[in-house]
């Protein structure tokens, strides 16, 4: 790790591209805010809150879903088309599944966004990985939503 | 070019490994979620296609993977609650290590009977019913 006092002129300034450079600022200088805050929004804070709020709901929704589908009363062995038709006859379970789908997809996509930001170091790699993530998440979310709303037991 | 790795701040104990496990389980669950929305979407194609994909869920190997999935979701859920306790409970940071072991204990306690109920049918089919 390179340690350099801020505002030092000379050869150190050419080294600004290095992300691992720890800059020691002069006393009483105003703190340089990260770029997301400079733009005036608090996106990362809302993302942090969303992960906790959605996580809390998902604990109930997903663990309930897994308990019913995989463990109770024969688990996965009793699941087939008529089982799904029976469950989705009830607005309660359709609402459950819709909430679960949206919260899990957004929670998972945001988690993947954080992981891409952490490990993909090149700007271009980060950009394209996130485009791939957002596009595929959008398509899966759209498909899942359409399936829940347009399900037809007499297909 | 990416810079050479900087010095590490990872401390390598309960706190770091629970974080690593949270990431790994999170990514695995996310990829399964994609597959799961796609397989469930087959109910909109035909009952026969849906039943055929559900039959693969009932094969021994996939059944075993479901046990892994339930364990991963359970760990991710409980460790998520631990993270929230660290964030919002004033004594959370002090007890983060104990909470890690509590998470592991609950996962094991639930997964032992859980695995039994999930694998019961598969085992009976492979080795014959005990009743």
Please provide a brief summary of the model.
Chain A has 155 residues and is mainly alpha-helical. Chain A has helices at 35-38, 43-71, 81-88, 91-119, 123-150; strands spanning 3-5, 22-24.
Description:
The complex is a heterodimer of chains A (155) and B (131). Chain A has 155 residues and is mainly alpha-helical. Chain A has 2 domains: 3-32, no CATH class; 43-150, 3 helical TM bundles of succinate and fumarate reductases, CATH 1.20.1300.10. Chain A has helices at residues 35-38, 43-71, 81-88, 91-119, 123-150; strands at 3-5, 22-24. Chain A has a two-stranded parallel ribbon. Chain A is elongated, with a radius of gyration of 24 Å. The N and C termini of chain A lie far apart (63 Å). Mean pLDDT of chain A is 85; it is low at 7-15. Chain B is mainly α and 131 residues long. Chain B has helices spanning 14-40, 47-57, 60-88, 96-127. The radius of gyration of chain B is 20 Å and the shape is extended. The mean pLDDT of chain B is 90. Chains A and B meet through helix 2, helix 3, helix 4 and helix 5 of A and helix 1, helix 2, helix 3 and helix 4 of B.
């Amino acid at each position: 790790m390179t340690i350099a006092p801020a505002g030092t002129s000379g050869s150190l300034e050419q080294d600004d591209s290095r992300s691992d450079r720890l800059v020691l600022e002069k006393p009483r200088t105003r703190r340089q805010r990260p770029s997301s805050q400079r733009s005036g929004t608090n996106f990362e804070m809302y993302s942090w809150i969303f992960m906790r709020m959605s996580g809390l709901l998902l604990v109930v929704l997903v663990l309930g879903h897994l308990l019913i589908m995989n463990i109770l009363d024969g688990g996965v062995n009793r699941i087939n088309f008529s089982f799904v038709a029976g469950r989705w006859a009830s607005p309660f379970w359709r609402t459950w599944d819709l909430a679960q789908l949206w919260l899990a997809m957004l929670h998972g996509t945001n988690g993947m966004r954080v992981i891409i930001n952490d490990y993909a170091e090149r700007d271009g790699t980060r950009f394209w990985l996130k485009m791939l993530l957002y596009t595929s998440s959008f398509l899966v979310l759209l498909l899942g939503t359409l399936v829940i709303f347009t399900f037809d037991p007499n297909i | 070019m990416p810079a050479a790795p900087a010095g590490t701040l990872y401390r390598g104990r309960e706190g770091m490994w629970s974080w690593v496990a949270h990431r790994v389980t999170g990514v695995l669950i996310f990829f399964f979620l994609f597959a799961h929305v796609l397989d469930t979407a087959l109910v909109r194609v035909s009952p026969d296609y849906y039943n055929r994909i559900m039959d693969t869920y009932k094969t021994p190997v996939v059944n075993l993977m479901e046990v892994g999935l339930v364990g991963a979701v359970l760990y991710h859920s409980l460790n998520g609650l631990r993270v929230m306790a660290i964030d919002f409970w004033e004594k959370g940071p002090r007890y983060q290590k104990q909470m890690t072991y509590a998470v592991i204990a609950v996962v094991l306690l639930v997964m032992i009977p859980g695995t039994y109920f999930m694998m019961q049918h598969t085992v009976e089919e492979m080795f014959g019913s005990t009743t």
